[in-house]
Amino acid sequence: MVTLFGISGSPRRAATEWIMQEALRYAESNWHAETRYFSVRGKKINFCIHCDHCIRKGSCTHEDAMQEVYEGFAWADAVLIGTPVYQGSLSGQTKVVLDRLRAFAAGNPHGLRNKVGAAVADGGDRIGGQEIAIRAITDFYVINEMIPVGGGAFGANLGATFWSRDKGAEGVAADEDGLRSLHKTVNRLMMVCQLVKEGEPHV
Ligand SMILES: Cc1cc2nc3c(=O)[nH]c(=O)nc-3n(C[C@H](O)[C@H](O)[C@H](O)COP(=O)(O)O)c2cc1C
Asked: What does the pLDDT read at residue 200?
């Protein structure tokens, strides 16, 4: 059984939330994954202020909704982060979540090692910065010793991409190519995660 943690980096109940719910539903029904979901919507999440409390003490000085994210990462074998495209890249909310995960790594050296990660981005424009947003997320995976995956050539390349046409959930639900890229990406994420789990040393 693979555990999958899904995160939406949108402040709205709209396109990204719809995509993430579909991804988790798909992983549960096709891969029997156990899933958890976290949305930044309505949550208080402070910026990292580089106080280095995490480096000295192993935990973050802020007490806020990130606790749920830390628990989700500790629990998960696989992570899927979804972001709306803001100014050609990931949303500020998504970036803050990634920055604040520095405290997770400080408290658990190699705690993210070999977790498998993928990303999905949705933009109001067909080519609005989705791949750049995805790369920012997969770079985080690389930096933190995770295993980044895309969805494979001919449809999902670096990960899942949607064109919402700025129409929220309705817009992405109508994007058949986007949906195909999401399913390909979730398939790849689950496949690699199973391989990693099977290959784990049994000590
Ligand atoms: C501050 C801001 C900046 C945005 N910048 C872009 C952009 O650079 N490229 C793009 O394609 N869409 C851009 N959009 C549109 C959103 O990415 C798009 O509507 C997305 O589907 C919203 O996701 P949500 O419904 O989950 O909030 C921007 C929206 C906002 C609020």
From this structure: 76
